[in-house]
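Researcher: Please translate sequence to structure tokens.
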Amino acid sequence: MSAALRLTALIVSGLGLLLVTSCTGSSLEQSLQADPQLQDRPVFSSEEPETTATPDTSAASTPTDTSATPEASDTVAPSPPPRVSSTTSVLDDVPEDLRPYVQDWLALGVIDTASGQTPSDTTAEAFEPNQPISRGDFAHWLLAANNRFYQDVPAKRIRPATSSTTPAFQDVPASHPDFAAIQGLAEAGIIPSAKTGNATAVTFRPDAPLTRELLVLWKVPLDTRAALPTGNAEAVTTAWGFQDAAKIEPLALRAVLADYQNGDFANIRRAFGYTTLFQPQKGVTQAEAAAALWRFGSQTEGISAEDLLKQPAPSPSSP
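Model: Translation complete:
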């Protein structure tokens, strides 16, 4: 029996060896090996790179498309920003009582017009309402405003001086940017100078701050269009109730008294409000100067910036 068992084992062993040998290269052996597509395939499938690359490509193309947009918009002129934006930002800093006057003043574009420029936001951006205005700047504003208000009344216009005119002030030569206005006002007798008999007025000090008494002294003659009345400190105190009337220069006292005759249209009331102290040497702000120049004329007859803005624009002349 043991010999038979050994013989049987040898037969079974031979058959197993024959079976393994015959499976080499067969489909069974191939099914046990790794899939060559998975083995050689990259980490992402052929579809995965395309799917992943799609958002990358679109993201990369976004700035290209955006950069192309301005090129297309070049053919259409962009609309300019509205003037009211700049003006509104300036008006936020203006005292409430002066705001209507400053708004009309900026809307007129008087400064730009006098400079030969088209009215724009430049005026609003350069306007500093709470900063003091210099004497030279106010002279420029005063002449420009007078000529703008009376552009259709040649008899009330003031002619700017030419560079060939002999300077009235030693510190305002013909090369000074405000020479035409300062010299023109001096030639017209609005600004006191040697021409008006003020022998000591040989300098103008264009960069010095404008004072309240000078504002009234220069502006009122363009309201009354007449000689200033005689006056003294007592008369000004009686009229205005100013406690410091004695501090006002004698020549300015006459203008302050004449301004009182304008009633509610007085420059002092419009620019400085109600006060019992005139403070003649106090500096004038740009907003106060604009308020004073908002209107020209007497109590019964005058023209304001509001009136000018309501006037219809002139129709263009036919060729």
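Researcher: Any highlights?
Model: Residues 134-208 form one domain.
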